């Protein structure tokens, strides 16, 4: 993965921020929307694309486009830096292959302990019953 090539493939769009904020919000387009087309990317290998597609499936659109936005700062340039940093972190986390979980057996002592406690509970409930008169 080449970071500079990856950054060159990003598309930025400046939009007006939503919500309260007075004149500045109404005049200035400080919110930055980043979009990245995963399928058309040439900075990533096919294996990396598949891995990202599975790991980031909930964040991708149906066309495999990743969209991030940032309106934390009043500065458009600062918001662009923040969203780019966030994108790179997301890609790095998405490329991590999780270690396969190794199944373990339930220890015999745990099974014995569970059965013993069940027997004790059963005995308690037996003792609460009215005695059988024959």
UniProtKB/TrEMBL annotation:
<dbReference type="GO" id="GO:0072344">
    <property type="term" value="P:rescue of stalled ribosome"/>
</dbReference>
<dbReference type="GO" id="GO:0043022">
    <property type="term" value="F:ribosome binding"/>
</dbReference>
<dbReference type="Pfam" id="PF00472">
    <property type="entry name" value="RF-1"/>
</dbReference>
<dbReference type="GO" id="GO:0004045">
    <property type="term" value="F:peptidyl-tRNA hydrolase activity"/>
</dbReference>
<dbReference type="InterPro" id="IPR045853">
    <property type="entry name" value="Pep_chain_release_fac_I_sf"/>
</dbReference>
<feature type="domain" description="Prokaryotic-type class I peptide chain release factors">
    <location>
        <begin position="16"/>
        <end position="32"/>
    </location>
</feature>
<protein>
    <submittedName>
        <fullName>Translation release factor</fullName>
    </submittedName>
</protein>
<dbReference type="GO" id="GO:0003747">
    <property type="term" value="F:translation release factor activity"/>
</dbReference>
<feature type="compositionally biased region" description="Basic residues">
    <location>
        <begin position="110"/>
        <end position="119"/>
    </location>
</feature>
<feature type="region of interest" description="Disordered">
    <location>
        <begin position="103"/>
        <end position="134"/>
    </location>
</feature>
<comment type="similarity">
    <text>Belongs to the prokaryotic/mitochondrial release factor family.</text>
</comment>
<dbReference type="InterPro" id="IPR000352">
    <property type="entry name" value="Pep_chain_release_fac_I"/>
</dbReference>
């Amino acid at each position: 993965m080449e970071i500079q090539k990856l950054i060159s493939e990003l598309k930025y769009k400046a939009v007006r921020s939503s919500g309260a904020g007075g004149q500045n919000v109404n005049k200035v387009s400080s919110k930055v929307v980043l979009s990245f087309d995963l399928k058309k990317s040439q900075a990533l290998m096919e294996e990396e694309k598949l891995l990202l597609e599975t790991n980031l499936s909930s964040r991708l659109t149906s066309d495999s486009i990743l969209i991030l936005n940032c309106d934390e700062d009043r500065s458009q340039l600062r918001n662009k830096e923040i969203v780019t940093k966030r994108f790179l972190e997301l890609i790095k986390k998405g490329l991590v292959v999780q270690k396969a979980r190794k199944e373990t057996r339930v220890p015999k002592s745990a099974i014995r302990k569970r059965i013993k406690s069940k027997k004790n509970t059963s005995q308690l409930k037996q003792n609460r019953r009215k005695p059988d008169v024959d």
